[in-house]
């Protein structure tokens, strides 16, 4: 295999038949993965054959590397290095702040991946799996990830507080409007009562004058 002639790209519908065969040989869940084939990046050799594939799923600024398959194990280290570089770039473009994998291959630790601490595990999406399932993780930003995550928390809290303030303002406005309606209604009733009283007094006076 000539690595200089290797092509890396996203899987398309045309690749699905080949991917099914590769996933089946690797004893992966073909039925599940074929519905998610757009998550996969593939490596194609000079013979236009898929020689490696790796999945990247992302949600809530967290990315999951999954379902690695290498057709020729002799080329696995070199192909993993190529695909992992592409995955890192794509993940950053997607806005992913942290990547996760359950792979036990030493390559990932050599690249700076570490066992997650308690705080990191708080950001692990439940859809990825159990928090104690042997994860490795790596942040994808140069600044402190904790600081960025804290900013998200602050923004989220501010949004919640603004929402609560808006609800309280709306509730007070409704109460004021209801009070205003009641006051106007009572005022109109009082005015109507006063007008009626004045009318009856005038009518009484006219009746007395007629009697004389």
General description of the model:
- With 212 residues, the protein is an alpha+beta fold.
- The protein has a domain at 3-141: Gcn5-related N-acetyltransferase (GNAT) (Aminopeptidase).
- The chain is built from six helices and six strands; from the N terminus they run E-H-H-E-E-E-H-E-H-H-E-H.
- It has a six-stranded mixed beta sheet, sandwiched between helices.
- It is elongated.
- The model has no long low-confidence stretch (mean pLDDT 86).
Give the tags.
212 residues; alpha+beta; six-stranded mixed beta sheet
Task: Give the helix/strand layout.
Blueprint (H helix, E strand, L loop, with lengths): L6 E4 L5 H10 L4 H4 L6 E5 L5 E10 L2 E9 L5 H18 L4 E4 L4 H5 L7 H4 L14 E4 L5 H67 L1
Parallel strand pairs: 4-5
Antiparallel strand pairs: 1-2, 2-3, 3-4, 5-6
């Amino acid at each position: 295999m000539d690595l200089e002639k290797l092509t890396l790209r996203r899987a398309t519908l045309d690749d699905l038949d080949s991917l099914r065969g590769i996933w089946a040989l690797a004893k992966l869940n073909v039925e599940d993965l074929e519905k998610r084939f757009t998550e996969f990046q593939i490596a194609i050799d000079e013979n236009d054959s898929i020689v490696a594939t790796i999945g990247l799923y992302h949600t809530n600024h967290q990315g999951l590397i999954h379902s690695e398959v290498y057709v020729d194990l002799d080329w696995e280290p070199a192909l993993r290095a190529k695909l992992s570089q592409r995955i890192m770039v794509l993940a950053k473009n997607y806005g992913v702040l942290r990547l996760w994998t359950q792979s036990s291959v030493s390559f990932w630790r050599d690249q700076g991946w570490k066992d997650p601490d308690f705080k990191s595990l708080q950001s692990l999406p439940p859809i990825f799996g159990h928090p104690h399932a042997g994860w490795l993780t790596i942040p994808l930003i140069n600044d402190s990830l904790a600081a960025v995550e804290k900013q998200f928390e602050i923004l989220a809290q501010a949004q919640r507080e603004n929402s609560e303030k808006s609800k309280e303002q709306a509730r007070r406005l409704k109460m004021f409007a209801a009070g205003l309606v009641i006051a106007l209604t009572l005022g109109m009733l009082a005015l109507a009562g006063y007008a009626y009283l004045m009318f009856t007094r005038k009518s009484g006076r006219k009746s007395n004058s007629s009697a004389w």
